Amino acid sequence: MQHLPEGDQRITTSSIGEREDGTPYYEGSTYYEAPVAMDPSVLFAPWIESNHLVTDGWRSEAVFGFKRAL
């Protein structure tokens, strides 16, 4: 019987800044990786940028995938 590796990996970042035109923004991202067997892992990495001062004030994306150690 094969045992799963213990633990997972999580990295979270966030920043607050200001564009050249003075518009403030917030940006955040997370990277989460969890083993599903001895070599492969599943990963999820969302990202968002927001600015509540404008109508179209947010963008986002997410990556979902599998990765295998060589």
Task: Tell me about this structure.
With about 70 residues, this protein is mainly beta. About 0% of the residues lie in helices and about 65% in strands. The protein has one domain. Strand 1 and strand 2 form a beta hairpin. It is elongated.
Main β-sheet, spatial strand arrangement? 1-2-3-4
In total, the number of domains comes to 1
Number of strands: 4
Query: What's the overall average pLDDT, rounded?
Result: 86
- Taking Cα atoms only, what radius of gyration do you get, to the nearest Å? 17 Å
Distance between the termini: 21 Å
Number of DSSP helical runs:
0
Based on secondary structure, the structural category is mainly beta
Portion of residues within helices:
under 10%
Q: Give the biggest sheet.
A: 4 strands, antiparallel
Which stretches are poorly predicted, pLDDT < 50 over at least 5 residues? none
Inertia-based shape: elongated
The helix/strand series, from N terminus to C terminus, equals EEEE
Percent in strands: over 45%
Question: What secondary-structure arrangement, pairings included, does this model have?
Answer:
Layout: E1 9-18, E2 24-35, E3 40-50, E4 58-68
Antiparallel strand pairs: 1-2, 2-3, 3-4
